[in-house]
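re: ur msg from earlier - yeah i can do the benzoic acid complex, just paste it... oh wait u already did. ok heres what im feeding in:
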Amino acid sequence: MPSLRLGSIAPNFEAETTQGHIKFHDWIGDSWAILFSHPGDFTPVCTTELAEVARKAPEFAKRNVKVIGISANDLNDHEKWVQDINEYGTKSLGPTNVQFPIIADGNRKISTLYDMLDEQDATNRDAKGLPFTIRTVFVIDPKKVIRLTLSYPAATGRNFDEILRVVDSLQLGDKYRVTTPVNWQKGDDVIVHPSVSNEEAKTLFPEVTFHKQSYIRTTPLNV
Ligand code: BEZ
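and the outut:
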């Protein structure tokens, strides 16, 4: 099994999706990507999650992020379920139109490759007793490097605002020598990266504040 640790290359694969056949790395191209799994089609928490992801499409696009879902069902189910998601989402959340691809993984090949099956959760099984995929998230950068992994239990829907917040933090950290503090939101002060000397910090970040704890240096970032 390839490594799925932060910093390793996201395993490549070919798959059928609701938007046609893809080669994963080619599909990512020069974008960032979010690959997220959910337990199964026609399940309630998943329906709310996919509707929310569809509604956040402009937020992902703004950040040059492509989104792709996966569950251990076939294309026929995915296509029928997308209609439900659009209908439910539009009624309950506001206009919803799922346009991102969903991978058909009925044989659990890609879920296995990405370690998305929780063999231990007895409540997370389909009608045949096979494990559903769990709720994982992989944030992958344009070099195909895994930058974030998350695993949530089947019964807990994810917070996609948090996932966008992490993308903002990662993209900022790639561009500037900064890190982001607890509960940081775009526009808040950031922390100067520990690898930056105090002298460099004064040049790079003229508004830097040196705190009593000499290892904490914060600065606004007017970008
Ligand atoms: C859900 O999406 O609602 C769900 C799926 C599998 C197990 C528990 C909840």
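cool cool. Helices lie at 24-28, 44-55, 57-62, 75-92, 109-113, 160-175, 198-204. ping me if u need the other ligands too
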